[in-house]
Amino acid sequence: MSDNAKQPALTICIPTYNRGKRVHSLVLFLKSNLLTRTDDVNVLVVDNCSNDGTEALITPLVDERVQFFKRTEFLDNAEKNMYASVELCTGEYIWFHGDDELPMVETVLELIKSIRADEADMFVFNSSVINDEGGLLATRMAPMRSLYVDVCGDALIQTAGFVFMLAGISNVVFKRSAVDVDVAWESQAVAPIYSHVCWFLISFAQKRSRIVNLPLVYYRNSAIPKQIKHFQKYAERLGVGDHYFWGLGVAQQLEYLVSKGAIQPGSVAKVIEGRRDGTRFRLLNEVIMRFYLQVVLSIETGEARQRIDPAVLKHSRDFLVSCDPFAYDLFEPIEKLNEIAMGQRSRSELRSIRKEFDLIFRQHDADPYRNHWCGTCFGFDLYNMPMGWVAIDPDVPGGIESVLQYIDIRQSPPYVWVSDSLEDLRLLLQKYAEDQAAQVPDSEAHTRTEIVKIGKELVEISRFVSSEYARTVQISLQTTMPIRLFTRAVLFPLRRVALVARRALGSVRRRLVRA
Fold first, then answer.
1. Which long-range contacts (C-beta less than 8 Å, at least 24 apart) are formed by 296-305?
2. pTM
3. For residue 268, is pLDDT > 80?
4. CATH architecture of structural domain 10-221
5. Extents of the domains making up the chain
């Protein structure tokens, strides 16, 4: 805790707009279950000019540790409400809590201990995910084994991502003194959505960040169609394309981060994101796909706001190619499609160019860890991951992606080897290869012994089969004995009588004919 005994360790700031009932239930829960168990937390509700009676609902709950602030001027997105709220927070650390998320009290209490011990400047939690109705979608946002991992520099964006875990404001708790609000407003000017992620990455690029494998909240994540509809309305209001926020907008924000020295260009190609269904994907591929969808939409609708200026497209292409040269192949058909949108190419080529892009994209999207791959050594594939060097046997059960999907990859011989340096990893693999080679003679002797053993077993099986066949023949002979005796005693004499009768009748016929 701070030297100032009156300063709380944590301010839970709840920015809200027209969700009075949800905020009321959230504050009730925090007062009853958290504030009664610690004196190191206060709660601040910041109302962005709601007109649903939020103030009337929250005011009765206000006391010395629960505060309410209502803006007199409406701010047109949630991020702006956050940035303008920083100066109102009195805690050493700030937690912007989404007004529709559900907190995990035990995790908050553990967080307070970590704050007191000054263990990190920013905490990012691996929260659970629920849908709009509160149904559980996933117990965690990213595969992880350890209780926590400490990261800094480019490892932060490569592990926490850009548009999912780190974008969820309720997952992040940060030290108030470590951030510059002016940077937040500057990030907002680049692109509004995800500007807070840029703010975090710039503020904590060289500071101590900890990814905690505990859920801080049940993070509410709407179905994709509902999210798209929401952001389409916002895009229309801003006069930008429907896919702007995830395509051109993110590309501009990533370029901004590189320009500020928060990340290296090569890291852009290594950012792996999560989805609400638990699957993982490469951010760069998704950004390029959004460029493609935006251009196609501009062709289909003809709306001015859906178009991408060729100069802007070229600038974004050059930046993304500087991060990953493979991106050039994907932008080739996109630029052709944009020429159709601008009336510079025949619309009759639309179908063939779309097929061309689809074919190229599927090839590029097949391996999300392509840019992490660094070659092979002693038959193992080598990967440079955020937490260190990894060597994986291509025959590892579950496949290579099942190993790489974890934020904290663990060594699991003989299939997976991990080290902080490439040289140390090479020495590990060399020793393993030498140990395997030394076991070859014993292995061959063991193999010969096994072959002899199997041969003996086959001989025994052959004898058993022969014995069983002979026994079966004897049983058959014994079973058919009555039938064979009846045949000899009755049927054979009858056959002889019939033969004699046929001969006699034949003789009679011949005599009658001569007569």
1. 296/337, 296/354, 297/241, 297/242, 297/243, 298/241, 298/338, 298/341, 299/337, 299/340, 299/341, 299/347, 299/350, 305/235, 305/236, 305/239, 305/240, 305/241
2. 0.83
3. yes
4. Alpha-Beta Complex (3.90)
5. 10-221, 227-365, 369-430, 440-472+484-514
